[in-house]
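[SOLVED] Need 3D model of a two-part complex

Original post:
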Amino acid sequence: MTRDDKIAKSLAQAIRASGLQEGMTISFHHHLRDGDRVQNLVLAECARLGLKQLTVNTAAIMACHRPVLEHIREGIVAGIECNYMHPSVGHAISKGVMPGEVIFRSHGGRPAALARGQAKIDVAFIAASATDRAGNCNGQGGPSAFGSIGYAMPDALHARHVIVVSDHLEPYPLTPASIDESRVDAVVLVDSIGDPDKIISGTTRVTRDPVGLLIAQYAAKALQASGLVKEGLSFQTGAGGASLAVARYLGDIMRREGITGSFASGGITGMLVDLFEEGLFRSLLDVQCFDREAVRSMINNEKHREISASTYASPAAGSAVVDHLDMVILGATQVDLTFNVNVHTDSQGLIMGGSGGHSDTAAGARLTVIVAPLLRARLPLIVDRVGTITTPGRDVDLLVTQYGLACHPDRGDLKEKLIEADLPIRDIGDLKAKAESLAGIPARKTAEGRTVARVISRDGELLDRIRAVC
Amino acid sequence: MTRDDKIAKSLAQAIRASGLQEGMTISFHHHLRDGDRVQNLVLAECARLGLKQLTVNTAAIMACHRPVLEHIREGIVAGIECNYMHPSVGHAISKGVMPGEVIFRSHGGRPAALARGQAKIDVAFIAASATDRAGNCNGQGGPSAFGSIGYAMPDALHARHVIVVSDHLEPYPLTPASIDESRVDAVVLVDSIGDPDKIISGTTRVTRDPVGLLIAQYAAKALQASGLVKEGLSFQTGAGGASLAVARYLGDIMRREGITGSFASGGITGMLVDLFEEGLFRSLLDVQCFDREAVRSMINNEKHREISASTYASPAAGSAVVDHLDMVILGATQVDLTFNVNVHTDSQGLIMGGSGGHSDTAAGARLTVIVAPLLRARLPLIVDRVGTITTPGRDVDLLVTQYGLACHPDRGDLKEKLIEADLPIRDIGDLKAKAESLAGIPARKTAEGRTVARVISRDGELLDRIRAVC
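Solution:
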């Protein structure tokens, strides 16, 4: 390995050369989603090399990362820091498999913690679908293309040592260099970084569920009534079926009224690409591609711009994309009477998710709309106190359910506009009562075991604790 | 000013809000070259605000920056750190106008010093030809387009406070965001950041001087004889007439032999753009555009890639473009018998230049070729000991003059190949004698005043001192 050619003979050689030691922190990204092979590969190699007590820092633990549980049981992994955790790992954490505590951050809080020195990465392992010998890399080339590599950019900037892991080598200099050679210490070539069928889904579909469509219609009407649907608007929504339906309805309004938006942001789906290519949005700001359409669009269109997690959402940055958002559509598993939202734990208190960009976009956007059915798995959405605070109620403006909409009490101005638009505005307490009349009052369960996870706010403060469920 | 809209009411307001105090360091870039208005504007405003004892850190002090001398005399500026200094400021420094010492670095040494903490910037003033309200900015949009903004990228990364100064506002989000909003604290809009006629020259011309052409022919033949002119080659040259002629001759060889190069790098000229667009190079790696053709090409072609000064040349980076260079063509004002090169001071010892990327590319390239006429202003090029060491002789492989070529003694392998190619190889001492036979032996002048400047190597060590000329 030289400065001209950083290709290591093997993953093991690269790990040894990195100086990785017991107790250190390694990082990954989740752009390969449920098809990722890199995290498991690296942890298995760390196990073979006899490394112990490692902390894994990553934006998201996906279902495919279940092998981490075995590494936890064997003492190879002792800590996890992430912004999202799939239930297939989360349930085991909730049941106490790891002696230490998971640290949950948000997609903006994670790069902020790195910038502030509250989190440290010793060795970053960055899966790239294309690299050159010096480590210029991206997620756009090669057979395992996944699009934006935004969540790994802060790791490349802050980690003490950076190893690019790829299955596709191109001649120097690779273009684009989403992460460039100046940040890279070593390159490891492997047979496959991921299962292409699971890396990205096909085009994500708008819901056909009539409840979801009704909620989306209400939400779109509320956006319009708010007065924010006007020339230059900016918008973000998730990849859920109802959220996509809101995007489609918003597109209909924009088309009808001749409105062009400035940007849509976040995880990008084919639905947003369609609106962008139609000219309804001038730009897409993409920290993550959710489907093939998004990958294709990012490769082909300069105005579909790859952004880092820091640029997306970091409160420690000079500013971030979320600070410019007019409207964001978000989901919820629980909402409480003060509008706190939970997307971390289920009704039993088991870990099944995490903020991702939920709390970041809610804090940044002028109008934060939560869309969710009033009943989830036959349990009321609205509770007295959420099991876990993901996003504080002060950052939520509006809850939309199929039985009506509830405005945050600080948003009397919004409430008036929505009433004027003939939307069914309800008190959040009344919505709660409605749900309970349909589903009964659930027996309240409170997890009372030791702390298994801490939820850290995007500003670096303790927001909540998640306790063991025995 | 908010996180959404960082536009300050005035430059004065932005300076006050930055917390700039007496004794602090402010930074600039020189991409606007001799048309830059921003550095003078900011220093004048600092003077009006009563700020004192500031240090100016910039990649280059150009002729248009002469007003800095008045600020030095008045105590507003007390220090300069740069990689190049035009004689119109340099001569005054040599004559002792500034009580403190100039710190000279190289284009790679500057970002390395920032990364290592050896240099600090309190407030960076970044001239941008286009910005949006959040500070996403570039040098490609607007009427004052200058192309790559690569030298300012490390400033944006490392400065405590970053102010973008522009004369062209575009709607959010600006694309491309060569420097993105996450690094920017404030935006100042001014009438004009520069004089477009002086920002970039028209197409830079190949020399017509027969001596320059002969040197270029020798150099091109030497490149070919070295064995490095083969598929995938990489190449850098400056914007001087003889250097451009080498590029043209190299292009002829590549065309004739069906060779495609991987990249050309550095300051990019229309000459290199022509070779690139013809398909003789697959990529251009551009830290600075020297002419309009380069600006146009960078805007239009993804493979003409903007790079930061760190990615260009920093020895503190994981690697840099200079580490991949096969061949570089560089100039010299003096060369000594151990192949040390001086481009800092003239024959009288007066400051008239600086390394720029000279020492960086010489250190990185497999073959470093110095092209220079044996006589400069009727004085011999070759001396016993250069007035100032810009690039240590160990990083130089070959000197090419119109009277013959001299190989560094460590490059016996190269010497053999050049002799085999019938090139007129001479001992460097013989070339020195030849020059002296033509021009006489100059009276040796040694500046013996106090130190007015320190030359710091790219690795952060003291390389030489420049003394006052009284």
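Edit: The interface with chain A takes residues 2-4, 6, 134-135, 162, 171-173, 175-177, 180-185, 232, 262-263, 282-283, 285, 302-303, 305, 307-308, 310-311, 314, 317-321, 323-324 of chain B (CB under 8 Å).
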